[in-house]
Amino acid sequence: MSRLKLILGVLGGLGVLVVVGGLAVAALAGPDSAAPRTMVAGAPRPSDSTWPLNAPPLAPSAPAGTSMSPAAPAATGAAGAGTPEAPRDGGAAPFVQDFARQPGVKPLPRKPSPKAKLSMPAFADGCDHAYGDRNQCIPLVFPPGTTDKCAWLAEHGFKDVAVVGRDRQRLDPDGDRIACNS
Amino acid sequence: MSRTRPLPLFSRKDRVRIAQVLVLALVLALLVPGRSSAAANLLSNGGLESVDATSFPVCWEKSGWGDSAHTFEVTHTAPHSGRNAMKITVSAISSGDRKAMMLENPSCAPNVTPGHQYDASVWYKTTTANTVMTVFRHDVAQGWVYWTDLATLPVTSAWTQKTVRTPAVPPNTDQIVWGVTIYGVGTLQTDDYALTDATQAAPGTSCSAGAACTAGAWQVMPFDSPVRGIHAVVLKNGDVLLVAGSGNDPDAFASGTFKTAVYRPSTGTFTNVATPADLFCAGHVQLSDGRVLIMGGNKDYPAADGSHGYKGLKDSYIFDPDTNAYQKVNDMSAGSWYPSATVMGNGDVIALGGLGEDSSGTVATQYFNAAQQRWLGIGEANQTWSFWGLYPSMILMQDGRLFYSGSHVFGNGLPGSGASIYHYGTGAITPVIGLQRKDERDQSMSVLLPPAQDQRVLTLGGGNIDSNPDASRLTDLIDLKQANPVYQPGPLLPTGKLTGGVPQTATQGKMYVSAVLLPDGKVFETGGGLHNRADPVYEASMFDPVTNKFTAGMATDPVPRTYHSSAFLLPDGRVMAVGNNPGDGSFDMRISVYSPPYLFKGGRPQILTVATRQWAYGSTNQITVDGPITRAALIRPEAVTHSSDPNQRYVDLPMSVSGTTVGLNLTSNPNLAPPGWYMLFVTGANGVPSVAQWVHVG
């Protein structure tokens, strides 16, 4: 008998838990319950500056030195101030966030129209084209720790490297116009 | 002694009572929303019925910014249910927006679980489509921060429900709030907000592919490329345009032998294309119609005596995937060898930097007007006369400005901080600080991290051809959502092995690295070398933008991939790699294809139907799928060369889910998804992406 009471007690307890729990969940699950949960109003907040959109839109930060040509339409939103454009075909205008305004960061000084070319190194690719056939790239500067340039070249598959210009790197001490063969 | 008959365990009466309890429990279990209250509305006062002393709904606030004439009203006139609805009227606006927002406090903001997804639902009426559901999250370290925009609400005069599923909640997030923003003239009414947990149980995954389960696997194709794949563009039909021009072969240049081929991954076949000029070292980008704008190229190689350097062409062509042919357009205003090419939100293209026809630095801003299909004259485009270097990485920001990431090719970074924000409209260039060792980011790579809405950029590795140090392991991260974005150091690139299996030292990284956005939202990083055109590094890793961490130990391409190599995503979710041009003058013509781990983890979801291939900004586009999906995204096909593709981007598509019919909500902002053809991927609950479908945006 005692075992029967014990089993019935456990089952009864489980049943009560299921019923009470189910009712509780059902009550809480409904939207806009008639008995709303206790709610605590938040701390007062500025009505016009909810983070992160609390920074005022950036005033034009650069002088209008270059006006937009009619032939050069601005990229969408390129005004950069989050100003929406007119809706297209009845759809929504682009929603642009007010990010990266860079307050306090000054634009770089404007450059005048250039009067001279901007000179660039002839060997802009890091290759010393005074050496090698036309496909090869002998480094202008060898990697750190390179004590023997010829050994480095050999290790990297260069063979019979021609000297086609000035031997700046002194790879052709015997002057036969072939580097690293003496 | 009589034996008594044993009593049954339960009497008949007991059995009846137990059955009654069980039946009641079963009935309740069926009535109560299932899956641990998955449908329970997590919002406090979502119906706006409880009001405070000011008669404004408890747990809600008036929110917004900018210059507008507007009113908030708790209206009792024909709410969707109950007595109250929220009515916001904007009668004039020059900037900013307005919305009713859930209060960002612990009592009102619903608690959420990282990794879970939630269905945000609202009933609404609006006279303007200039609306958007915007979500903020509470980061346990940063506090409340903007998270994402979910969807545009179309104009409707009848109460209409919009339900959109959030992306997976990021780590370190404990609460979210959201509201409906109105940013145009009109009236917006909302009512009966709800938020429910829509997390789908991840099915068990099994993988029997050994190491490929976690590292993926490479396959070297049994055929070579017929051209030097220095420039690679994934086309709107899934083919790959491989452009060599003279291919860094002065002999080919001298003989006028210029090459292009179109590779079809599905058949492994190539189509040779007549190439009208030496397009070696050109810039390229897909136009909105899927044709490819090619700009500049190689007018000459440097002279051995140094009397001149590389010279840039002014020529420009459009490659048409429908005809596999080039068509000439007007010349650029300046020669362009190594120019950048960034497509803007209106479909126009801006090219910056490079070398001119006389080997000098090109300082002109060159602007291709898509509507007019021509390059503007130098006086027609806005000029700053700034030199941006070679292949500068100019990434389109969500407001239409360009972020120069500091990633470039050859030599030092630009003077100053090495990174900046450029406003084409005003010509303003404002520096951005924080980039580490900005003069050693030559042949680094920058990517706009997934999703594009998050506006974060990762810059990886780099070296310097002038000083030729060991390339670095540095990475830098920047969040362009911040009011004053500053680069922050990212995790170090994992180390790999050099030729012969020699492990790299702790300070050795790589330059000419490739970074590829994958459909699961991760970034696959592969290839590269320790020095300019030398010393390939065998290393690959997976960067997770959610955790900002690399997973090292991905399978490495057995083919060295240094200078003049590229890697890019194929529409089937694999990654293709081409090219390698070491200093000895050789060129590796082999093609490798990488299958990421996700391809070994079970069945792929299928996109069964796409209602329309033409997607308008701010629209919801219906697809059907064959099972549960957790994510959908558009990935812009790559157009990459020299570790540079500033247009590569992954655009999240928040989902409105109804069984296997899913509405995909496209941003209203073209700067987040410039017009063009995109690969549409969906990802299943098992983390496996579909094969892409092609859709046209804009």
Describe this structure in words.
The complex is a heterodimer of chains A (182) and B (698). Chain A is mainly alpha-helical. In chain A, 19% of the residues lie in helices and 0% in strands. Chain A has 2 helices and no strands. About 43% of the residues of chain A have low confidence. Chain B has 4 helices and 54 strands. The relative contact order of chain B is 0.10. The N terminus of chain B is likely disordered. The chains are: A mainly alpha (182), B mainly beta (698). Chains A and B meet through helix 1 of A and helix 1, strand 1, strand 6, strand 7 and strand 29 of B.
**Which regions of chain A contain 5 or more consecutive residues with pLDDT less than 50?**
10-87
State the helicity of chain B in percent bands.
Answer: under 10%
Sum up the overall morphology of chain A in one term. Answer: elongated
Number of helices of chain A: 2
CATH topology of the domain at 12-200 in chain B: Jelly Rolls
| CATH homologous superfamily grouping of the domain at 12-200 in chain B | Galactose-binding domain-like
Rg of chain B is: 28 Å
Shape of chain B: globular
How can the largest sheet of chain A be summarized? none
The total count of strands of chain A amounts to 0
Number of DSSP helical runs of chain B: 4
Write a concise keyword list for the protein shown above:
heterodimer; A: 182 residues; mainly alpha; 2 helices; 19% helix; 0% strand; elongated; B: 698 residues; mainly beta; Jelly Rolls; Neuraminidase; Immunoglobulin-like; five-stranded antiparallel sheet; 54 strands; globular; disordered N terminus
